[in-house]
Each structure stands twice: as C-alpha cells, then as structure tokens.
Design brief:
CATH topology of the largest domain in chain B: Aspartate Aminotransferase, domain 1
Structural class of chain B: alpha+beta
Helix content of chain B: 40-55%
Low-confidence stretches of chain A: 248-256
Number of helices of chain B: 9
Pfam families (chain A): F_actin_cap_B
Organism (chain A): Brassica napus (Rape)
Keywords (chain A): Actin capping, Actin-binding, Cytoplasm, Cytoskeleton
CATH class of the largest domain in chain B: Alpha Beta
CATH architecture of the largest domain in chain B: Alpha-Beta Complex
Protein name (chain A): F-actin-capping protein subunit beta
Number of strands of chain A: 10
Distance between the termini of chain B: 70 Å
Oligomer: heterodimer
Number of domains of chain B: 3
Subunit structure (chain A): Heterodimer of an alpha and a beta subunit.
Chain lengths: 256, 362
C-alpha cells in the first residue's frame, strides 16, 4: 500500500485518475483502502427536478445511485436507500443554501454540495464539496485560463455536544490544475493537490453551521495561499535554479 | 508465460496487461524519479518477470525523451542519450569526442565506449559547421546553465562533401536539478533544429523548450511548460553561422525565461483568481453568523408562496447591501435598490410573480 501511494504521489497530477484505476486493477484486494485515501476530481450529475447540478462522492452514494442535496432523491431512483434523519436533513438543506452563497462569493461560479449523515458516536459527519471550472469556456471571469479546474473536498467530523461545546475535525483536500497559453510564455501548466487537517473545540452557541463554515473558510484560504506561494513558488525557484535569469547577456559579434 | 495469458480470470490481469500498466508508470515518471517509481512499482507488481520486461521496453524510451546524460568512462566526457544521437538502441554517439557509448538503459549508466566508425561520423565539411556550433553552444551553456550539458548532432545530409546540398544539425541542451531530500526535482530540455538550406542560402531554425518541475513535500505539485520557436538567419561561414545561431538561441531562451517569470508573478492576483478569489468582493470574510438572515428568506418565500430559486438571490443581495452599505460598488447598489423595490411590490401583491428568473435584472 505504501508503494502504491508513493506511485500516486509521483505521477503527474493530471493523470491521477488513470494512475488510480491502474493501481486498482493491479491491487484489487486494496481497493477500499485506495479509494478512501485517494481523491479524484469530482464528478457532477444533473438533478432535473430541481434544475441544479450536484456533486458525486462516496458520501452521497448508495450502491450505484447518488442522492441529490436539492431534492433529497437518489439518481437513478433506489429503493430502501440511506437517508439522513429529518433533523439532520434540515441542517443539510440550510448548509447547502448558505454554502452556495459562500461559493458564489469566493468562486464567482462553480457548483457546490453538502452532505451529512449520522456517525456512530452520536455526532455527525458533514462533507462540503466545491467544483469550479475556471477556464475561459467555463466560469473563468477574466479569461486567463485555457484550462482551469479546482476541486475542494472538506470532510468535518462533529463530535457530540458536551457542555455547550463540540469537537470539530476538518480534513480538507484541494486539487487544482491550470494552464495558460499565451504568446510570450507558450503553454504554461501547473497542477497539484494538497490535504490538511484542522481540529477545534468550539462553543455551539452560534450553531454548527457557523463553526463549520468558519473552519472551512480559514483552511481553504490557507491552502490556497500555500499552493500559490509555497508549492508553485518552489517550482518557480527550480526554474530559476536550472537557468538563472541572465543579468548580463554577452552577445558575441562575428570577428569579421 | 503462455499459460498465464490463457488464464484470464475475471479479476486477474493478463501478463501483457500488467506489463503495459508497468510501462505506463515508468514512462510517466517525472525527471529524475524513474528509479523511485521503479522501486514502488516492483513492490506493487510483486512479479519480477513482468517488471523486468516492462523496464527493458520503457527505460530506453524514457531515457531518450528525457535526454539523460551519462558519464563516459575514463573521464572522456558526457554523452546525451537521445533519438538524434542513437545508432542502435544501446549505442549513442558523442560527436564531440567521436566516441560511441554503449549504455545500459535500465541501470542508466554507460558501460563502455568505443571509437566511432567513419560512417557514423559526419563528413569533414559538415563537421566544420558542427564543431564550430558545438563550441559556441558550449560557451553559451556554461554561461547560462549552472548544470547544463549540450551537444550538436548531425542528423541529415551528414555525408555531404561540400556546398550544394541541404543538411540539418540538431542542438540539444539539457539541465537537471535533482534534490530528492528536499522533495524537489526539475529539468530543462531544449531541442533546436537548424536546417541549412543550400539553395536559398538560409538557415531555418525551429526550437522547442520544455521545462518541468515537481515538488512533493506533503503534497504534489507539477509544472509543465513548453514553447516552440521559429527563426532564421543567413548561410555564412561555419564560424559566423555558429555565432549567429548561438545568439538566436540565447535570445529566445532568455526571453522565454522572462516570460515564465511574468506568468508566475501574475499567478497570485490574476490567474489564480479565475479559480478562487483570496477574499469576496466585499473584502471581508463571509458572514456565517448571519444565518438568521438566510432563515428569514425562507420565511419570506413561504409567506409569499414563491419557490426557493426565485427569491433567494434577491433577499441575499439585499442583506449584503444592508450589511456592507458603504463598501458596496455602485453596480451592486443599483441592483439592491431594484431588488428592494421588487420585494416591496411582491409583499403588496402577496402572489407569485411569474417570469422572475434569478439574476435577470441588469
């Protein structure tokens, strides 16, 4: 398994789907481990009834059907499927609405979905997902990107309420890829993924949604900055190490 | 082997399928990481035979496309393994020293050298041009690339005895920086085709530069950049051609590096914004605590008997306006004013308003 994960870390991020399916076919006995530890770019399905798209993931799947957060129905329809409790569903509906607005504010487009379900410890787990196509032909407002994709997966485990406090554990994964194609710089592509965790004990006074939302906003911001400054910065440093910018260009003239 | 192929069980892959997968992993390894990939791959496959065969097929392709440099024994120098210097799959010519290196692709070493045969080398007429260019490029590379290696191969018309025929030289520049302990590796590959056209007395120059970098400390990020170039100059004496070509290459590569720097500097505030902004347009964090506001919108919808999609955008915008009045742009202000008017109108009507689509007012 270690070796499999090592391989995935080295393959080009854009080929992660191919790499994962190759590994799944080589190591079928580890498929559940692999699928739970590796994130792939998110897929989307249309909920015709609500006229909205929703994101597919392990957390809204039952057999081969996926539950839409807007209509709470499975696509394709499924009998005896799993649903969150009605109380949790209320929170889920509110979360979807608010998260959609958050998404619009930061992403100026894109698709979001939130799924919740009870866990074994009298708490619950919530999964907030965002998918954005930032390319010129997608929702890229400034038309800089030939190709651009951002997938964010935030999974929060919320512990049971104790003395008006609750424990939150957030794991966030960001996968992104961007490509520009301009005259002077040719085809310039950066892609990658990172994952981080954040744990907090917070008062439940303002509601779970508020606490979860704040944590997600903070971690997303940190990850965005990290990707931009640290990760992309390192690749920039590498280019300058390979070929330092020419301070003085000595042009040799013909000896005639 | 034949038995394994026949035993195509449902979940078991065939020998050939496993081999193709193994080759895929090897070929897609970033610069300088093929040996780490190989190690992990061997463990995942747990089948020596498949791995060995895959490696025999994949390593040569990988080595040639990455233009790896191998040290030749007796400190003769380095040879660049590429499709341009290939004589046979395991033999590569180094024109500078007129030696042919025999290489072991999987081990990535040069096991021995032999002097090149006459028919493997270009004619003395071509060699004049080749070696002049080689010297100029070497000078350029040693100035500009801390860890660069270059070579000039003669690819077409290498047997021409004198003027009157076209011939082609290919300049290869390769530089690699491998810091696995810092989780960072990178490579630069330049391939420049110089087409010496006798009739028009013009040198047609086509170049391609490919830069890659991989940083993978608690994450995984890759840079993949490439650019193609086109230029030309006049056909002169060997020495003058060499100088002109080297200047052209230097000019384009320096300019490209500058353009890459610009692309990087635009990232945080422009390019990245198309994916995700640093902050909302209000320049403050999202008001999560105002969830009360959002519940109110649902009450309003219920009261007015409207579907969710038709009103939430308006009420949200109005809320934003009320919260951030002084900092909102005038475009938002107009929108909010319109929205508020419509809301008042709706409250009076107390009936659904057909034809209201979210986001339709200007």
């Amino acid at each position: 398994m270690e070796a499999a994960l090592g391989l995935l870390r080295r393959m080009p991020p854009k080929q992660s789907e191919t790499a994962l399916s190759a590994l799944l076919s080589l190591l079928p006995q580890h498929s559940s481990d692999l699928l739970s530890q590796v994130d792939l770019p998110l897929q989307v399905l249309r909920d015709a009834e609500s006229r909205k798209d929703f994101i597919l993931c392990e957390y809204n799947r039952d057999a081969d059907s996926y539950r839409s957060p807007w209509s709470n129905k499975y696509h394709p329809p499924l009998e005896d499927a799993l649903y969150p409790s009605s109380e949790l569903r209320k929170l889920e509906v509110e979360a979807n609405d608010i998260f959609a607005i958050y998404r619009d504010q930061y992403y100026e487009g894109g698709i979001s979905s939130v799924y919740m379900w009870e866990d074994d410890n009298e708490g619950f787990v919530a999964c907030f997902l965002i998918k954005k196509d930032g390319s010129k032909s997608g929702h890229g407002r400034r038309g800089c990107l030939e190709e651009g994709a951002w997938d964010a997966i935030h999974v929060i485990q919320v512990g049971p309420e104790e003395e008006e406090m609750a424990h939150y554990c957030l794991t966030s994964t960001i996968m992104l890829s961007l490509t520009t194609d301009d005259e002077p710089s040719g085809k310039f592509g950066l892609s990658g993924s990172i994952r981080r965790q954040m744990k907090m004990e917070l008062a439940v006074a303002e509601g779970h949604l508020c606490n979860m939302g704040r944590m997600i906003e903070e971690l997303e911001g940190k990850l965005r900055n990290s990707l931009d400054q640290v990760y992309f910065g390192k690749t920039r440093e590498m280019v300058c190490t390979l070929r330092p910018p020419a301070e003085i260009v000595q042009m040799r003239l013909p000896d005639s | 082997m034949a038995d394994e192929k026949d035993e195509l069980q449902e979940t078991e892959l065939s020998y050939d399928q496993k081999k193709e997968i193994a080759k895929w992993f090897l070929l897609n390894a970033p610069a300088g990481e093929i040996n780490y990939v190989a190690k992990d791959l061997k463990e995942v496959l747990s089948d020596e035979e498949v791995y060995n065969e895959a490696a025999m097929e994949a390593f040569p392709v990988y080595n040639k496309s990455h233009m790896i440099c191998l040290e030749m024994p007796s400190r003769v120098g380095d040879v660049i393994v590429s499709s341009f210097s290939e004589i046979t799959e395991n033999e590569y010519l180094d024109p500078r020293t007129a030696q042919v290196a025999i290489v072991d692709h999987v081990k990535q070493i040069c096991s021995k050298v032999r002097p090149a045969y006459d028919e493997e080398l270009p004619s003395s007429y071509i060699e004049e041009f080749r070696s002049a260019l080689d010297a100029e490029i070497q000078r350029y590379v040693s100035e500009s690339y801390p860890k660069g290696v270059s070579t000039v191969n003669s690819v077409k018309g290498k047997d021409a005895d004198g003027p009157g025929t076209d011939f082609e030289l290919v300049v290869l520049i390769t530089a690699r920086k491998l810091s696995p302990q810092n989780f960072c590796n990178g490579s630069w590959r330049s391939v420049w085709h110089i087409d010496f056209q006798d009739e028009s007395q013009v040198l047609d120059i086509k170049g391609k530069v490919q830069v890659g970098a991989h940083y993978f400390e608690e994450g995984n990020v890759e840079l993949d950049a490439k650019k193609e170039f086109q230029d030309s100059t006049i056909f002169q004496s060997a020495d003058d051609c060499a100088i002109a070509i080297a200047n052209i290459i230097r000019h384009h590569e320096t300019e490209y590096l500058g353009a890459l720097e610009v692309a990087y500097s635009k990232l945080p505030d422009n390019t990245f914004k198309d994916l995700r902004r640093k902050l909302p347009v209000t320049r403050t964090l999202f008001p999560w605590q105002n969830t009360l506001q959002f519940s109110l919108t649902r009450e309003v919808e219920k009261e007015l008997g409207l579907g969710k999609n038709s009103i939430i955008d308006y009420v949200y915008v109005v809320s934003v306006y009320l919260l951030y009045k002084p900092r909102i742009s005038s475009r938002y202000q107009t929108f909010c004013a319109n929205a508020m008017n419509i809301l008042d109108f709706l409250k009076l009507q107390k009936a659904p308003m057909p034809g209201i689509e979210p986001g339709s007012p200007g």
